[in-house]
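Worked example 3 (structure in, sequence out).
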């Protein structure tokens, strides 16, 4: 399963990088041209954000309109912030389900977390493998507490390379390409609409990773958080 997911992951990454490379410096006035090319090529790309953090306002708006949401994140810090708060409060009437995939901080030997921490330490000296694991544990504990009272929220863990963040709704997807030596918030992000080649690729990647992930029990997550902190 892991080999298959990695193969799918590599294919998606190669395709998306080709699209993103030419448009990563795009500004809002050029989005109409990106949309035109999207319709001509069938890729579904509508916007390109130079930095992921520039997309947060648009993500928050799209989440309020979503019927279902699927998120694969490299750490999950953004899941505890304002943009995602309506998902956890139950204030979106039309929302049917939320599925979240976070890295497994207890994975043995946990080489992917260690590798990601090593890369980030080049630009952020305080970032260590232990810190990354602690942050993931804290975010997992937060979401596990939400899931305990919300049957429509599911949480699973994965053990794969940290390549990108994927947020998919029934209407669109936001795909962040993690820079090797840079935090996700500083990395480029694509906004793709459904239907489209890249939207379907992102949805497929999430589905395959979800199928191979490990369910996170709310009670277990709470105990881990208490012990570690």
């Amino acid at each position: 399963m892991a080999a298959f997911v990695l193969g799918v992951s590599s294919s998606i990454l190669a395709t998306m990088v080709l699209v993103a490379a030419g448009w990563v410096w795009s500004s809002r006035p050029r989005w109409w041209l990106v949309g035109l090319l999207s319709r001509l090529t069938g890729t579904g790309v509508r916007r390109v954000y130079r930095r992921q953090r520039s997309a947060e306002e648009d993500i928050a708006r799209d989440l309020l309109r979503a019927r279902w949401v699927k998120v694969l994140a490299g750490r999950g810090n953004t899941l505890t912030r304002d943009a995602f708060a309506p998902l956890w409060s139950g204030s979106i009437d039309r929302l049917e389900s939320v599925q979240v995939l976070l890295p497994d901080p207890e994975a043995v030997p946990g080489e992917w977390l260690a590798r990601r921490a090593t890369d980030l330490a080049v630009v952020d000296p305080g970032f260590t493998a232990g810190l990354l694991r602690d942050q993931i544990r804290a975010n997992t504990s937060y979401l596990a507490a939400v899931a305990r009272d919300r049957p429509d929220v599911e949480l699973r863990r994965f053990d794969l390379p940290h390549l990108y963040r994927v947020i998919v709704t029934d209407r669109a997807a936001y795909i962040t390409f993690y820079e090797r030596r840079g935090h996700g918030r500083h990395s480029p992000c694509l906004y793709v609409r459904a239907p489209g080649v890249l939207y379907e690729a992102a949805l497929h990647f999430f589905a395959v990773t979800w199928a191979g992930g490990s369910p996170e029990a709310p009670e277990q997550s709470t105990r881990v958080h208490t012990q570690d902190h």
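Notes: The helical segments are 2-23, 31-41, 56-64, 85-89, 111-121, 129-149, 197-211, 218-228. The longest strand covers residues 97-103.
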